[in-house]
């Protein structure tokens, strides 16, 4: 074979390998579809004002905090829900709209959702709600009891199914990246922020005589579909909350 023909053959083989790899990647290895899903607000519900009433010291709440994975069927009150969401992302400085959890560069890229089961919260229909910290409201985005679907998304962890409510934390990595273009840095900032919010939920739950567990193990695509998440939001944490049965 002539030298030129050999080069052509090698080029054809390399091109074929490249095309095959591309085909395998696009067909089998692409992440789950996360396009903007149509989301309609089905209703807006006022939350009671959060109060600073627990009387439990931070030291005691830290001392008592334990992950709870066995819940009673006792419903939570709207006040419980309001306190938990306020602890997660409530506005604590209304002049600057700063929140209960710290945020790198005060970007505030996080969103918080409530998944309420049947009789999960007194006076609130089962469904999935987005917390609006600016006017202290819940915006319903999915009707009906979705706790079983949520537990399926969380690899079938039964405490998710059992808890009267769960709080889901999502993060907008692009929003942070817009301010901090270094991808590692901005990703780290969002992940750390989710941890701050999660610890606030844990401690608020303890202070109200409730229990919670951090769930970081779930199928992203199922969470995205269940919560009808827009393409710029990534689910990071689930926090089932309720009264401990143990
Ligand atoms: C990032 C992260 C992810 C976690 N994911 C899960 C989970 O998917 N399921 C679960 O039951 N617990 C999960 N946990 C809770 C840990 O198992 C728990 O914190 C640990 O066992 C220590 O117990 P403690 O929280 O009572 O101190 C997670 C905790 C963290 C910090």
TrEMBL record:
Keyword terms, alphabetized: Membrane, Transmembrane, Transmembrane helix
Domain Nitroreductase as annotated: residue spans: 62-243
Organism domain of life: Archaea
Coiled coil stretches, renumbered: none
GO molecular function ontology, one term from the record: oxidoreductase activity
Protein name as it appears in the record: SagB-type dehydrogenase domain-containing protein
Matches recorded under InterPro entries: Bacteriocin_Proc_Enz (IPR052544), Nitroreductase (IPR029479), Nitroreductase-like (IPR000415), SagB-type_dehydrogenase (IPR020051)
Annotated signal peptide: none
Cross-referenced Pfam families: Nitroreductase
Transmembrane segments: 7-28
């Amino acid at each position: 074979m002539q030298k030129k023909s050999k080069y052509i053959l090698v080029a054809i083989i390399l091109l074929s390998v490249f095309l095959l790899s591309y085909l395998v990647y696009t067909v089998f290895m692409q992440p789950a579809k996360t396009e903007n899903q149509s989301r309609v607000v089905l209703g807006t519900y006022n939350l009671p004002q959060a109060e600073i009433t627990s009387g439990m010291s931070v030291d005691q709440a830290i001392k008592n905090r334990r992950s709870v994975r066995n819940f009673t069927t006792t419903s939570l009150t709207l006040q419980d829900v309001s306190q938990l969401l306020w602890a997660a992302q409530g506005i604590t400085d209304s002049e600057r709209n700063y929140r209960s959890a710290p945020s790198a560069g005060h970007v505030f890229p996080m969103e918080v959702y409530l998944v309420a089961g049947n009789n999960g919260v007194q006076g609130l229909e089962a469904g999935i709600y987005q917390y609006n910290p600016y006017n202290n409201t819940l915006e319903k985005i999915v009707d009906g009891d979705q706790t079983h679907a949520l537990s399926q998304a969380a690899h079938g962890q039964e405490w998710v199914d059992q808890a009267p409510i769960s709080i889901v934390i999502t993060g907008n990595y692009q929003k942070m990246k817009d301010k901090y273009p270094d991808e590692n840095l901005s990703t780290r900032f969002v992940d750390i922020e989710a941890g701050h919010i999660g610890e606030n939920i844990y401690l608020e739950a303890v202070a109200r005589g409730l229990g919670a567990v951090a769930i970081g193990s779930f199928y992203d695509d199922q969470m995205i579909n269940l919560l009808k998440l827009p393409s710029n939001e990534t689910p990071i944490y689930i926090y089932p909350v309720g009264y401990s049965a143990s």
